[in-house]
Amino acid sequence: MTHNRPSKGMALAVSLAVAGSVSRTTVSHELIGARPYEPIRNASICDLPPHTNNLLKTAATTMSTQAITTHGVVTSGRGNARKHIAENAHEIRLLINEVLFPGSLNLILERPLFFSNATALRFANTQRLLWPGKLNQVPVWFYRWQQTPLHVLEVLSGTKLRDRLNLKDGDVIEIEIDQMHVTPITRTSHLAWLALWAGRADWAYTHDRYYWRTRPLAIDLGATQDNGEHHPVRTLAKYIYGGVKRVPVIGPAAMRFRNTLQAEDGRGNQEDRYVFAREDLDSCRTPADREFTRIRNILNYTKTSGSAYSATQYPAGYHTLEIFGHQLKGQRDPRLRFRNLGVNFSGKRILDIGTNQGGMLFAIRDQIELGVGIDFDHRMVNAANRLAASTGADNLHFFVFDLERDPLDLISDLVPNGRIDIIFLLSVCMWIHNWRSVIRFCADTADVMVFESNGSDEQQSNQEIELRTHFSSVRIIEDSSEDDPTQKRRKLFLCEEAQTKRVARSQALQSVPAAN
Asked: Of 159, 191, 218, at which residue does a domain stop?
């Protein structure tokens, strides 16, 4: 007899139920595997290099008598802070009038703390945050990004803190922060944090797979520094549904039922929709700043679609985009999706079906002759055309097109001269009923198709079967979508030599008279 493993959603529901019985007391050192607290030699401001004194004195003057004190365990990080500080060095210097050491001290806090987003100093398109505080009485800057787990804290300074304070992994150190910079954690967020991190707090740095797999759930449940609206009940229902949809027969039926409900004029989904607020241009100092803000407004408006691919929690939406030297993070990075493809796009004419904001085409615009993207959502198409106009991408064109309602043959008429070398059909098929016809159209139109499957295991298997019906060569390039932390079960295929074109070429060769 075999036993089915419980889904992640079921397991989470059980975990939250268990966590509900845990009192809201301070997390012990044993919970995070720390050594008992031992005082560490303090370093005064006078001990520090002269060029850091201004920064630390500034932090010290902001500390009121209403301070919160807790402890953290020193641990090794991933080295990302060095990159973030280097990339944003100029902006940080303007913000705090000092130069920071390129690196951070990583701490696992003894209890979760939610720092106030309202009092934070922000950089990197407001996605990274700083608060003044003290570490063993030394003024420093506490650093987080929006998706930081509530027990993780990184510390920045003008000096290398490990050397200055003689710290090593496992040391326990005192941190102090003004009460104005700390916001009470809701009971729901606290329970969610317990379910995800109790007994494994250090996994935030030591277990990458666990960290990336749980991050979307932590964001949805309010167990990170992100300050968006959270709906725990709906989130639990979503993850339970995620487990159900993989069950044969029941899963596909559940997905069709959900899609039907979502298609009925958006009823039942209004509360989950992204609330758009246009950013005012009055605070922009230069024409370039105003243009960048306008584009951000248009990108943010695409998130009001309420669709699963609107990527409301990411600055750029679905695709990571490069705009005026700024990188806006999206749910998926086109460069990562291309990395193992091995296709030469030089001089090619590309059709991107389901283009979203056009991120896949923008990533290769300097290589290709022409790129045409189609999408049924006018918001996405508007954003893509606006980006093309602002970035001078004259070889990219985007159109509104409904695959289920508009004639598929009309797609070729949207492409100048009608010639298409390569088609992108990426994570589209589960959303449309006529996906087989769309794949057939692609095989009849281009010699090469880059295809990403999506949906349940059964749906993706059927999509692969359909690919092999129409293409002689179908290769799996990636057997999981690791570039997307929210959905990693999709597969990337390179499809070449369409059957219909191969037959047509064979018939043409047979019709040529033999040479005498």
From this structure: 218
Confidence of residue 6 (pLDDT cuts 50, 70, 90): very low
Can you name the residues that pair with 322 across neighbouring β-strands? 327
Residue 297, in any domain of the structure: no
- Environment class of residue 123 by beta-carbon count within 10 Å: exposed (0-12), middle (13-18) or buried (19+)? buried
Q: Which of 272-286, 325-339, 425-439 has the highest mean pLDDT?
A: 425-439
82 within domain boundaries: yes
Q: State which of 199, 218, 237 marks the end of a domain.
A: 218
Q: Please, are residues 68 and 115 in contact by the beta-carbon 8 Å criterion?
A: no
What residues have CB less than 8 Å from 283, skipping those under 6 apart? Answer: none
In a domain, 457, yes or no: yes
Highest mean pLDDT (candidates 58-62, 380-384, 506-510)? 380-384
DSSP state of 406: S
d(CA 337, CA 494): 12
3-state SS string over 51-117?
HHHHHHHHHHHCCCCCEEEEEEEEECCCCHHHHHHHHCHHHHHHHHCCCCCCCCEEEEECCCCEECC
Query: Residue 407's domain is classified under what CATH number?
Result: 3.40.50.150
pLDDT digits (tens, 9 = 90+) for 487-498: 788 999 999 988
Looking at the structure, tell me whether residues 353 and 484 fall in a common domain: yes
The domain in which residue 375 lies consists of: 330-506
Q: How many domains does the chain have?
A: 2
Which has the closest alpha carbon to 328: 50, 124, 482, 96? 124
pLDDT (tens digit per residue) in 389-415: 999 999 999 999 999 999 999 999 999
Whether residues 204 and 353 share a domain: the answer is no
In a domain, 274, yes or no: no
- Residue 106 and residue 370: Cα distance in Å, rounded? 47
Query: What pLDDT band is residue 516 in, cutting at 50, 70 and 90?
Result: very low
Which range of 54-63, 269-278, 436-445 scores highest in mean pLDDT? It is 436-445
Burial tier of 41 (Cβ tally within 10 Å: 0-12, 13-18, 19+): exposed
